[in-house]
């Protein structure tokens, strides 16, 4: 009811403006915040007062009782000094009286603050005992005792009369002190209760005010935005050709006026649609819808190269909209996407069909498009108009496949050229010399033939391995195996080669590595490939280190070297097919197949492989294999 009255006002909220409604929403939220703030301040003040009273009252009371106990103890001491030091009896009496004034002063203050009946009884008991205690000291001083046994008689009187009164007074003081301590804890509990109550009140207020704020915002937001949403949906419907949509008018403010005008507009459009011109508009809308739905980016420009129409794909490619670009020059629109230099080369004003391949570099990605320009003419009354349709066909994938094919052919040609030449030379020399007697040059050539033949075999093996992995018929022979055994087996093959190249190979393998389910031959092939690459790109006195250990459910294996390293631009691409590392004075020494095959193998084992490298500092290739990477049914 409060919210309704607040929003309705004197003449009803329907007659108020949007500005008034928003102002009322802000005012209501401010009122809620003020209520919540006032309640918080009041509760904080109550807590502060409770804590202040707790500390002040009980602290002063305990301090007074402590002073009374100290004064009583000092009086007892003065009595003892009086017994043993009769010559200064006057001094001891004056000291006793001084402590008496201290005791009584604190006693009077304490008596005024007591309200608990039990504590009042205790303070009266203290008064009686203490008064008797003082009287006993007066009697002690008035005793007439034979001088020979004066000290003994006084001490006997002290023990029989004064000391019991001292004990009674001190006990009563202790009891009063204990009562004050209990009161202190009681008030502490009281303060705790106040705090807990304040918390409950604040939480309740938070919930209530939060609910009020939510209801208020929900109520008024719906009232404010519902017409806007409805008008928006109706505009979309009208844009699609439905002219019969009406917006319900529920308010007399600016939005109500908007809804009324919208309904008038749709009524006029509906009447227009029934006419001959309406039929033409329907055909135009159909053509527009077809053009907008084409997947390839497409734009239509007029004789002045100004944009008249575009589809959604073109809008997405050049980050624009038909509303923003209509009537603007073609190059002005495409230049906003940073592609002016590329697209300015297109013959977009050609009088005959033309096509041209352009290269886009956008957001760090390279894309290739075959841009087709088709001119056409149409009549507008007695005038002949000229326009161009420009379509962008994405041929990026085709270009990448073409590049891969070219790179592969170049690689194979390069790898086969030198070995075949060596084979021919060796064959010619052997045919000339003949027999079993070969000189050192002949032996060297034979060794060259052997080395180049090995390179050819390696290339062919990589190709076959990659084909086998990518083939649908590729099967992994999973079994239970130990990574330590795989590493040791691979290292045996490379230690002699490394020794000949004056490269040190080290291995650090955790003795407690668990077994994994894997194709042992495939994992060994991956490790051999990484070791082979490490040897290719290291030189004398470099080192290669193999590490393997268990970590977080995975067996982690790495091959590190201190060789040439990999340029940063190639680190993310070394596992792509046919990619070869070049640049930074690094000689290409591989086919670009091995790492791609290695990645496929590791992926097939549900693992992951990656590279970390820096030029002149070396590279580290790491792969991880899950310990439990297969279901029981996968192991054949």
What is shown here, in short?
It is built from 17 helices and twelve strands.
Report what the structure shows:
With 636 residues, the protein is α+β, with helices and mostly antiparallel strands. The chain has helices at 2-8, 18-84, 89-113, 117-142, 150-239, 254-273, 276-293, 312-318, 322-325, 330-335, 340-343, 396-433, 440-470, 483-500, 520-536, 568-571, 594-604, and strands at 298-301, 307-310, 354-362, 365-380, 383-394, 479-481, 504-509, 516-518, 543-551, 554-561, 608-614, 618-626. A five-stranded antiparallel sheet has the order 2-1-5-4-3. Strand 1 (298-301) and strand 2 form a beta hairpin. The longest helix has 90 residues, at 150-239. It is flat. The two termini are 74 Å apart. Residues 9-15, 583-588 and 630-636 have low confidence and may be disordered.
Which structural traits does this protein have?
single chain; 636 residues; alpha+beta; 5-stranded antiparallel beta sheet; 5-stranded mixed beta sheet; 17 helices; 12 strands; 62% helix; flat
Averaged pLDDT, please? 75
Structural class: alpha+beta
SS element count, helices: 17
Indicate the radius of gyration in whole angstroms. Answer: 50 Å
Please give the order of strands in the largest beta sheet.
Answer: 2-1-5-4-3
Low-confidence stretches: 9-15, 583-588, 630-636
The largest β sheet comes out as: 5 strands, antiparallel
Give the overall shape, derived from the CA principal axes.
flat
Distance between the termini: 74 Å
Provide the β-strand percentage band: 5-15%
Range of helix content: 55-70%
Order of helices and strands: HHHHHHHEEHHHHEEEHHEHEEHEEHHEE
Q: What's the number of extended β-strand segments?
A: 12
